[in-house]
Specification:
Elements lengths: L13 H4 L1 H9 L8 E3 L7 E2 L7 E8 L11 H18 L3 E11 L5 H16 L4 E9 L4 E9 L16 E5 L4 H10 L6 H8 L7 H7 L4 E5 L3 H12 L2 E4 L8 H10 L3 H7 L5 E6 L9 E8 L4 E4 L10 E2 L3 E2 L1
Parallel strand pairs: 4-5, 9-12
Antiparallel strand pairs: 1-2, 3-6, 4-6, 7-10, 7-11, 8-10, 9-11, 13-14
């Protein structure tokens, strides 16, 4: 049974435990990797930076907009919150080293929810050898989780969005459409297919593919968080090129095809415009072999800063905008 944070029936709340008591309970559940030289307990943490540069990214999850406690357990939310930030570090070609987490929560929240959130955050960070090294807590009527991720470039230049050039191959690591399909399933009141629902709850991010792409000479790269068309649109704009995707390069898995048919949805709207899978999209020189885990999905051409599919504009939603929702 999932804990929605409403309480365990013993009257325990974060207000009763207190800020510092909750901090002690949460930090006691965390482990620390080699990059953490000084963890929680002082005014700030100390993280190793052997490259002498630090890659940094911040993301925020707000209850009711990014997650729902009746859809996802606290560990799931922790995995998602960490993944959203760790993927940004990987998309720069860097290796994640640390997370800082700020948690704002209602006073009546069950402290077990915060503890399980920490379990999810720590477990996802551990996948890449990173650590949760500190953060902050505050009372708030809206449950909000803000995460800052740090990373190391290992002597390489960062892979930015503005480097794509005509003739480059567009490639993808990871999967797209799964989390969006899971979100649609949940929003219609269903809990199956479980494979899709779990993809929404805990994304499977191809973290090693980011540094691998950098080593292979990727010219541009981005984390697919808001939808493939929308995020590649940022690359097209920054690089002043046209990115053309090949529809047939995207296979529709059976579970997704069946769910789309049952729900009356075009599965390509999930694959091309759905976010939250945190796949990585990159461009590579045409003569460069793609590293393991990457597959070609399109080409970069000269032209207007736009993303097309099979040479034509895509009719339908293109991705997520936090202030305008899906476009």
């Amino acid at each position: 049974m999932r804990n929605d944070g409403a309480g365990r029936g013993d009257g325990m709340t974060v207000a009763g435990v207190g800020e510092f008591g909750l901090i002690d309970r949460v930090t006691a559940r965390l482990s620390y990797g080699e990059s953490c030289l000084l963890g929680p307990g002082d005014d700030a943490a100390v993280v190793a930076a052997p490259d002498r540069r630090v890659v940094a990214s911040t993301d925020v999850l707000v209850e009711g907009r990014h997650f729902r406690r009746d859809w996802s357990g606290a560990r799931d939310v922790g995995h998602r919150a960490a993944a959203a930030n760790l993927a940004d570090i990987a998309a720069m070609g860097a290796t994640p080293t640390a997370l800082l987490v700020a948690l704002c929560m209602p006073a009546e929240l069950d402290p077990a929810w915060a503890e399980e959130l920490a379990d999810g955050l720590g477990a996802e960070a551990a996948r890449v050898g990173a650590s949760v090294v500190g953060g902050d807590m505050s009372a708030s009527p809206t449950l909000t989780i803000a995460v800052t991720a740090l990373g190391d470039l290992a002597g390489r230049p960062p892979v930015v969005r503005s480097g794509a050039r005509p003739g480059d191959v567009v490639a993808l690591a990871g999967r797209t459409g799964w989390a969006a399909a899971g979100y649609t399933v949940l929003s219609r009141g269903f809990r199956t297919p479980r494979l899709l629902v779990e993809a929404f709850r805990r994304p499977e991010v191809p973290y090693p593919a980011g540094p691998a792409a950098a080593r292979a000479g990727a010219t541009a790269m981005i984390d697919v968080s808001d939808g493939l068309l929308a995020d590649l649109g940022h690359v097209a704009t920054a690089s002043r090129v046209t990115i053309d995707l090949t529809r047939d390069a995207f296979e529709v898995p059976r579970q997704m095809r069946d769910a789309a048919q049952a729900l009356g949805v075009d599965p390509y709207s999930w694959i091309l415009a759905g976010g939250d899978d945190h796949a990585l999209a990159a461009t590579f020189p045409a003569d460069a072999p793609l590293p393991e885990g990457w597959r070609p999905v399109g080409r970069v051409t000269a032209g207007a800063a736009e993303v097309t599919v099979d040479g034509e504009g895509y009719e339908g939603p293109r991705g997520w905008d936090h202030f305008r929702r899906a476009e």
